[in-house]
Amino acid sequence: PPPSKLTHIEAIEALRQFLRERSSYDVFPVSFRLIVLDVQLRVKKALDVMLLYGVVSAPLWNTEMAKFAGMFTVQDVIHLIQYYYHTSSWEAAPADVEAIRLASIREIEKMLQVPPPPLLSVHPLRPLYDACRFLIRTHARRLPLIDIDGQTQGEVVISVLTQYRVLKFIAMNCREITQFLTGGVQELGIGTYVQSPEDGNVFAPLATATLQTTVFDVVHMFSEKGISAVPIVDDNGKVVDLYETVDVITLVRNGAYQALDLTIAQALKQRSHDFSGVVTCSPKDSLSAVFSLIRIRRVHRLVVVAGPDDPQPGRLVGVISLSDIMRELIGRDVEPGGSGIGAEPVDRAL
Ligand code: ADP
């Protein structure tokens, strides 16, 4: 029977219990498509395939070793762009990217001294709760599910678990629990919020841009801060849009690395038609309301804006990423890349 009243802590515990009683398999539909990329593929081909199938990441497969070889994500593309900006001539970059193979990206990432690629994976039958704890530890924000074939003993990539899928699954199936999450998001400390002015940046610690900022400067913010979206604000601090790492893929795919010199205003004109819009909420909205949004919309992050009762309605207040929500559910004690879980996940080499 559905509980009649739960406190925040009790509701969180009930959600954890729900996740303990499910496995990653429960999150997926009976039939689904999986795109796996061979590490010998050229980056250009990989981007074309991803675009064709509308995916923004894919597991890599090393055919020679018959092994899972990590994830290829938008973040990798951001790193490639940075690399070419520093080393290659601007004109040669597109040709170089056509030629480079996925296997070589790891080398580039080493040179750039960016965090090592996420190689975490989990067995699809492990409790979903454990998978979620792995999920918030990996900066890929996605976790490949890998099984072992009973006959060949070889690895089999089953699917990829994302934060989005898990939160959608909870939003769809746990309404009778999430309704009790009535605390306001800012009060609960979920997300990153504007603090007192610092170094003249009135939005600190948030990274923001204006319509006049160049795409390249925003790409730099993505890579330096390890974030996947930057709110676009006007002169009055009002949120006018959001620029995301996936938007960069559209630009790069069009072959125009020079497009990085475009302003955000120009780049937004090229945004793909299926952009689902910026999802906003107010700092006083409850976590329950956020789950309602996740239930009905394709939410990848929320921009927190001041409500109508604020002296400056629409003013940027904060950003709530899916990882911020996951952390609230699963535990803030989980360090990215740190331990804190019983069994260590398997680390694989390319
Ligand atoms: P996710 O981890 O869900 O993919 P992000 O990479 O965007 O989402 O966010 C990672 C962390 O950085 C989160 O804690 C989030 O609150 C914070 N964050 C997100 N966007 C910004 C931004 N523009 N400036 C500063 N911090 C941000």
Q: What's the layout of helices and strands?
A:
Elements: H1 8-20, H2 24-27, E1 37-38, H3 43-53, E2 57-62, E3 67-73, H4 74-87, H5 93-99, H6 102-112, H7 128-135, E4 142-148, E5 155-162, H8 163-173, H9 175-178, E6 192-193, H10 215-225, E7 229-233, E8 239-244, H11 245-253, H12 264-268, E9 280-281, H13 287-296, E10 301-305, E11 316-321, H14 322-330
Parallel strand pairs: 1-2, 9-10
Antiparallel strand pairs: 2-3, 4-5, 6-11, 7-8, 10-11
The site of adenosine-5'-diphosphate has 18 residues, from strand 7, strand 11 and helix 14.
Describe this structure in words.
The strands form four sheets. This protein has a four-stranded mixed sheet. Strands 1-2-3 form a three-stranded mixed sheet. A two-stranded antiparallel sheet has the order 4-5. The chain is of the alpha+beta class and 350 residues long. It has two domains: 8-164, CBS-domain; 172-330, CBS-domain (Roll). The relative contact order is 0.16. It has 14 helices and eleven strands.
Distance between the termini: 48 Å
- Main pleated sheet: 4 strands, mixed
Second CATH tier, the architecture of the largest domain: Roll
Fraction in helix? 25-40%
Global mean pLDDT:
85
Q: Which cofactor or ligand species appear?
A: adenosine-5'-diphosphate
What's the CATH superfamily of the largest domain, by name? Answer: CBS-domain
* SSE-based structural type: alpha+beta
Number of helices: 14
Give the strand order of the largest sheet, numbering strands 1, 2, ... along the chain: 6-11-10-9
Order of helices and strands: HHEHEEHHHHEEHHEHEEHHEHEEH
Write down the overall geometry: flat
pLDDT < 50 stretches: 338-350
Rg over C-alpha atoms, rounded to the nearest angstrom: 21 Å
- Strand fraction band? 15-25%
Count the E strands: 11
What name is given to the CATH topology of the largest domain?
A: CBS-domain
